[in-house]
Amino acid sequence: KEIFLKDYKMPDYYFDTVDLKFLLGEEKTIVNSKIMVFPRVEGSKFPLVLNGDDVKLISIKVNNEDLKEEDYVLDSRHLTILSPPTGSFTLEIVNEICPQNNTSLEGLYKSSGNFCTQCEAEGFRKITFYQDRPDIMAKYTCRIEADKSLYPVLLSNGNLIEQGDLEGGKHYALWEDPFKKPSYLFALVAGKLASRDDSFITRSGRKISLKIWTPAEDLPKTEHAMYSLKAAMKWDEDVFGLEYDLDLFNVVAVPDFNMGAMENKSLNIFNSKLVLASPETASDGDYAAILGVIGHEYFHNWTGNRVTCRDWFQLSLKEGLTVFRDQEFSSDMGSRAVKRIADVSRLRNYQFPQDSGPMAHPVRPHSYIKMDNFYTVTVYEKGAEVVRMYKTLLGSQGFRKGMDLYFKRHDGQAVTCEDFYAAMRDANDADFANFLLWYSQAGTPQVKVTSSYNSDGRTFTLKFRQEVPPTPGQAVKEPMFIPVALGLLDSSGNNLSLSSIYHDGVLQSISDNDQPVYSTVLRLTKKEEEFVFTNIPERPVPSLLRGYSAPVRMETDLSDDDLFFLLAYDSDEFNRWEAGQVLARKLMLQLVSDHQQNKTLVLNSKFVEGLRSILTDSSLDKEFIAKAITLPGEGEIMDMMEVADPDAVHAVRTFIRKQLANALKAEFLAAVENNRSSAAYVFNHPELARRALKNTALAYLALLEDAETANLVLNEYKNASNMTDQFAALVAIAQKPGETRDTILADFYAKWQHDYLVVNKWLALQAMSDIPGNIENVKNLLNHKAFDLRNPNKVYSLIGGFCGSTINFHAKDGSGYEFLGEVVMQLDKINPQVASRMVSAFSRWKRYDEHRQNHAKAQLEKILSANGLSENVFEIASKSLAA
Ligand code: ZN
């Protein structure tokens, strides 16, 4: 059933307090819920409809009296109380659930013998009957009873107010959360866990107890997570003035988890891969992800929990904003430019394809069948870009004023994206024109820019033309409000000072109290418009969309020479990288077309020289260099083609990489030699940047055919003293089929078979491989003892990894598609959320040639004809097919 934003209705009843009791058992778990209900309008009379999914009703009482059978209706999804008393009343429900059989990993389930919960978005209804919607905010208590030896630790939200022993080897704990919350933030954990304990003193002097819970043997691996948590708490105080609001903050790591992590009030639950790290077992990428996600979930305490969403269409209100906050946090902890590059790459590689495919939806979707399908890169990452644009338009201080007003107005409320917009606008008295379209129009806007210089008038003109492509359900679009940050470079590479601009014939001064201004933000709001810069002494090279000031595809009339100039001189580091990427994209597309016409491929030597000068520029940040010498991904190039050609794109990217390896061999060797270190592993920016440059160079060198470099790469593997270096060497070696590859892969498994997180890396590396015929290996790995279809991380590594392989997933004979089709149908019976994420790999099927299209279509049809298909998979598969 499809649900629409326009159908939102306020609830007829609110809940004031909720007292839950859990009797956790091996065969069954009994849930007792006592709710104080009151009507929204005093004296009104409506039925009270509760959601319930897979819950067995045992008894139901209203105002202490058992409800008669004719007073309620029970169907497979609802419990409806037909005529509740007028005014307030108490509702008491007892029900039974079986967490031990719950493989969907939503609601209450077991992971490695421990009980845990995941309620967002609509998992609470799998625990008990409830109005399971975020605008129902109530105060909760939670009493947990369980066997003491099996479940020594009992956790829920808020403060522990009572605990003790019970007969029969049982014990209990009573938790009370003083803050009102929606049901999706409820959490419970029970099991054998140990904690790393620490504390944080808030800026107002309160001491917060911090605990990170894992199985005892993993405790040494929680040091970085604890460091990240304390850094996040400090950062939120420093940057947003936001302080933690309870005396206890718990983080629990579980190995079976559908997503990354969950911000349950004071009891965050994490996928263990985003908590556990040691230098030997986790890479720099893992360390960075842990920092970002620990930050993300902590930041939700204000942006999500204290102020939450009115309904699930508003998801980006909390997710876009919180992603923006975690991006800023990571920027401040590392390198801003490099973090921006990574975030924009992610947007381009994952969000752009979604925004131009059958699942394209606005940052605030208009409808959904299953909300879990809308925890997307559009809601999260494009949503974060929308928040970032407010900051670009208002500046840091203006943005902060907007945030302050948002909390002042809405603390304790469930609100909408317009409420956030209004706070930003009102706090700054700002004119945001048609900015709200960012929430309602899907599709990546395309902006074309042409420039001209008039030497007589000393004016420089930029003409912009924007177009928002049609997306499913939205054929015609309005022009958007696009902030374009820019500077103009003179011939020596310096930013020209900007004095004034004619826009629509109106002269605007941009100098600021006679201080020279070197960059500005243009506000595009129309389909076509023109800006004329005055007093420009020479033809400048414009540096446009600095820092990627809007989530658009921009096409300029800059020549290759201009782009090489920007690559060498732009003061905006993001745009330096961008210039290199634009050049690389052009080059790759040209070579793809040459390849398709069977022409001999030749690499432009200017491009090689451009990269050489970046590679050898010691004034540059090393992680920046690593990014700048990395070519755009194959997906990004396929995305720009009329008909995506995986074989040609892969051949071309490999060709360029080999050419670069040959041409820049000496520089790459130097980068490896000069960036080795025998010092103990430390995760900080200079160190990880050093490793990134060394390992990027190593991956190039591994493509060469001589024995000397092959030996070098092998030695890097053997001598590595941390996972970053070891895995990078393994990846480098695994690029080439052969005996060495097989031996080293086996060696790596033998070494790490007891560490499931490392084994997942090993699975993913093999699954993604572009080695011809690798599907057989992937099929074998399905039966490997290290694999388990019930564990999401393993599925994401092996199946998700395989879908990321350009060559093998998109094999012409359809074998890759058929494999995925079969796995999805098996997986759907176990875990619909995970199956649905996997089936998304088909959603771009129309981008390929007819032959591949037919194979993919057959699989989608097969999936849709399966019996008992979940709504999750149905929504993705049917929308993909319909487009
Ligand atoms: Zn989030």
UniProtKB/TrEMBL annotation:
<keyword id="KW-0645">Protease</keyword>
<dbReference type="InterPro" id="IPR042097">
    <property type="entry name" value="Aminopeptidase_N-like_N_sf"/>
</dbReference>
<dbReference type="GO" id="GO:0016285">
    <property type="term" value="F:alanyl aminopeptidase activity"/>
</dbReference>
<dbReference type="InterPro" id="IPR045357">
    <property type="entry name" value="Aminopeptidase_N-like_N"/>
</dbReference>
<comment type="similarity">
    <text>Belongs to the peptidase M1 family.</text>
</comment>
<dbReference type="GO" id="GO:0008270">
    <property type="term" value="F:zinc ion binding"/>
</dbReference>
<feature type="domain" description="Aminopeptidase N-like N-terminal">
    <location>
        <begin position="51"/>
        <end position="185"/>
    </location>
</feature>
<feature type="domain" description="Peptidase M1 membrane alanine aminopeptidase">
    <location>
        <begin position="226"/>
        <end position="435"/>
    </location>
</feature>
<dbReference type="Pfam" id="PF17432">
    <property type="entry name" value="DUF3458_C"/>
</dbReference>
<keyword id="KW-0378">Hydrolase</keyword>
<dbReference type="InterPro" id="IPR027268">
    <property type="entry name" value="Peptidase_M4/M1_CTD_sf"/>
</dbReference>
<dbReference type="GO" id="GO:0006508">
    <property type="term" value="P:proteolysis"/>
</dbReference>
<dbReference type="InterPro" id="IPR035414">
    <property type="entry name" value="Peptidase_M1_pepN_Ig-like"/>
</dbReference>
<dbReference type="Pfam" id="PF17900">
    <property type="entry name" value="Peptidase_M1_N"/>
</dbReference>
<keyword id="KW-0479">Metal-binding</keyword>
<protein>
    <recommendedName>
        <fullName>Puromycin-sensitive aminopeptidase</fullName>
        <ecNumber>3.4.11.14</ecNumber>
    </recommendedName>
</protein>
<dbReference type="InterPro" id="IPR037144">
    <property type="entry name" value="Peptidase_M1_pepN_C_sf"/>
</dbReference>
<feature type="domain" description="Peptidase M1 alanyl aminopeptidase Ig-like fold">
    <location>
        <begin position="443"/>
        <end position="556"/>
    </location>
</feature>
<dbReference type="Pfam" id="PF01433">
    <property type="entry name" value="Peptidase_M1"/>
</dbReference>
<keyword id="KW-0482">Metalloprotease</keyword>
<keyword id="KW-0031">Aminopeptidase</keyword>
<dbReference type="InterPro" id="IPR038438">
    <property type="entry name" value="PepN_Ig-like_sf"/>
</dbReference>
<feature type="domain" description="Peptidase M1 alanyl aminopeptidase C-terminal">
    <location>
        <begin position="560"/>
        <end position="882"/>
    </location>
</feature>
<keyword id="KW-0862">Zinc</keyword>
<dbReference type="GO" id="GO:0009507">
    <property type="term" value="C:chloroplast"/>
</dbReference>
<dbReference type="InterPro" id="IPR024601">
    <property type="entry name" value="Peptidase_M1_pepN_C"/>
</dbReference>
<dbReference type="Pfam" id="PF11940">
    <property type="entry name" value="DUF3458"/>
</dbReference>
<dbReference type="InterPro" id="IPR012779">
    <property type="entry name" value="Peptidase_M1_pepN"/>
</dbReference>
<dbReference type="InterPro" id="IPR001930">
    <property type="entry name" value="Peptidase_M1"/>
</dbReference>
<dbReference type="GO" id="GO:0008237">
    <property type="term" value="F:metallopeptidase activity"/>
</dbReference>
<dbReference type="InterPro" id="IPR014782">
    <property type="entry name" value="Peptidase_M1_dom"/>
</dbReference>
